[in-house]
Amino acid sequence: MSSNAFLTKCSESLLSVMRIVFAFLFMQHGGQKLFDFPIAKAGAPLELYSLMTVAGVLEFVGGLLLLLGLFTRPVAFFLAGEMAVAYFMSHFPKGFWPIANRGELAVMFCFAYLYLAAAGGGPWSLDRILRNR
After folding, report:
1. pTM over 0.85
2. Distance between CA atoms of 29 and 65, rounded to whole angstroms?
3. CA atoms within 13 A on the CB side of 12
């Protein structure tokens, strides 16, 4: 079997792996904002009705849904929008280039989630299990 055929055969499974890894990383951002876990965030305590609280809830709950592969397409689309808003509100005003304004993660999450919104959760997802029932 050629390497191209092998990678083609593995592509659906790798889609699920990508979804799980990105969701796990994303949940950490939400956990940090909401629970000071896995590490405490710098700055003032979280206010109940703030953009940071909304972002934390979206990142933690949305990340959990993506981790499970539940409602993958709509959740991923919504989170891509959140990352676009985060980039243009927090990072872009500090400069054009993502490397200079520290917005690389927001851009990468945004486009990874746009891809998941189009591709779905892959074979290892609750969406697939529920669809097959």
Report:
1. yes
2. 15
3. 6
**Residue that the structure tokens 């005003």 belong to:** 93
76-83-11 Cα angle (round to 5): 40
Mapping DSSP onto H, E and C, the string for 19-65 reads HHHHHHHHHHHHHHHHHCCCCCCCCCCCCCCCHHHHHHHHHHHHHHH
Model confidence pLDDT, tens digit, residues 21-63:
999 999 999 999 999 888 887 776 778 788 999 999 999 999 9
Domains in the chain: boundaries: 13-132
CB 22 within 8 A of CB 109: yes
Per cent of the chain over pLDDT 90 is 80
Q: Which residues of 65-102 are buried (b: 16+ CB within 10 A; e: fewer)?
A: bbbbbebbeebbeebbebbbebbeeebeeeeeebeebe
